[in-house]
Amino acid sequence: MGLSMATAALWVERWERQQQRYAVDREERFTVVADVVEHVTEGRMNPLIVDLGCGPGSLAVRLARRLPHARIVAVDMDPLLLEFGRTLGPPVVRYVEAVIGADGWTSALGLDGPLDAAVSTTALHYLSDEQLQRVYGQLAGILRPGGVLVNADHLLQEDAADIAAHVGRRRAGRQEAFAHENWESWWAAAQQDPELTDLFAERRRCPGLHGSSRNNGLTVNRHAQLLRQAGFCQVGCVWQVGNSCVLVAVR
Ligand SMILES: C[S@@+](CC[C@H](N)C(=O)[O-])C[C@H]1O[C@@H](n2cnc3c(N)ncnc32)[C@H](O)[C@@H]1O
Question: Quick one: pLDDT band at residue 214, thresholds 50, 70, 90?
Fold first, then answer.
């Protein structure tokens, strides 16, 4: 059974609310990522951007609205979330199924030139320290000089980490983020939708989706160290609320 626009829109709307529990000040964070990309792509005709771990395309869609001249490749390993994105568009976003870090994943992106930006939100914490070492190196190889990696995620601070986490929770509470359903209840409810039966069957066949590692627990400084080792310079946090950060690394 094909996925209807109405069903995709319903689940993505619920996704957007659910994700607010995990990404403090999520909407502002998306805006900051777009600010960074806008800055580094100024004057470029059709900048090429990759969204890593795009889910149903939350960031990709916002970037397409903000930078309508950009070409956006959105990559994820989850066929169900990708299908939501493909169904809802817009056409300037091209969705690719691949496991970031697996052999050949950068070729699977089908890029026709160097990237201007690689962006990601609430996704790279899935990758281990070892995987990130490799992935950051690969991204350094496909970004143009002056291009950026923009990682918006919950990143641990070296010091005062507990206080940062508390500040983030309070902020999320004031925005009523915890009134929304959580990750588990979203997936449990989606699984009950008969229109998604085939996509869930396809999802069950994806081995990468059922691993145990979900949060690498890496600090901001460790990310910065890995990025510098991979060949990036000017690595720094350009926005932060609690431990919700936008980390930028310039190639
Ligand atoms: C919490 S969701 C966030 C999705 C989206 N970026 C957002 O902010 O709504 C994390 C996403 O990362 C994807 N992901 C995690 N590890 C991945 C990997 N190694 N390769 C591809 N996708 C991955 C998951 O499938 C999931 O869609």
Answer: confident
